[in-house]
């Protein structure tokens, strides 16, 4: 099957004149951990070289770009939703909520840095994918494969990925037997085999199929025990 090559992105308004931020998330697919979003407002006068879809960059390159983005951007923000929120909202709505939180934290960051004023609202937020947050105070535009086509979204994808990986390494230190640093929470064969032997931790998304399946027999046993 031939690879689909999308055309270069054309901004609907001039990013040199208007304030355009980009948002992306990391962690929709994993069985555990927060879904982490980032929102970045780049400085047109202070460009950053090497920005690309975080999945196309090595971990070393992402780690090197993270502090550069945070230093050179006019503002950036991280937002997240917990596994419990994901189970309640579902992953799509949780991802959108994380992006809203990331945007609002970006504005606070800019105000603290002195690059944005109180009451600031972006002229446009570009969002990776085909969905955008609903009932949001900012004009939004979904950009398919935006993390590879739009520098603002690419920067956000890098910050989100690095932050989520950082959380996986912290969890790996706390629970080394689960090997979070290796599989990053994704449902790999090795991860699923580990879950056959170890308890489901609070950091797991209990609404996700593989986790739900592992929990259901235990729930049935618990209910039976109540009647003994």
Verbal overview:
The chain has 228 residues and is of the alpha/beta class. It contains 8 helices and 5 strands, in the order ββαβααββααααα. The protein is elongated, with a radius of gyration of 19 Å. The model is unreliable at 219-228 (pLDDT under 50).
Supply database-style keywords:
about 230 residues; about 15% strand; 8 helices; disordered C terminus; alpha/beta
Number of strands: 5
Overall helicity: 40-55%
Number of helices: 8
Uncertain runs are 219-228
Strand content: 5-15%
How are the strands of the biggest sheet laid out side by side? 3-2-1-4-5
Query: What's the alpha carbon Rg, rounded to whole Å?
Result: 19 Å
Give me the strand/helix succession: EEHEHHEEHHHHH
Question: How are the SSEs ordered, and which strands pair?
Answer:
Elements: E1 20-26, E2 35-41, H1 59-72, E3 75-81, H2 83-89, H3 91-113, E4 124-128, E5 140-143, H4 146-149, H5 151-174, H6 180-183, H7 189-195, H8 209-226
Parallel strand pairs: 1-4, 4-5
Antiparallel strand pairs: 1-2, 2-3
Helix pairs in contact: 1-5, 2-3
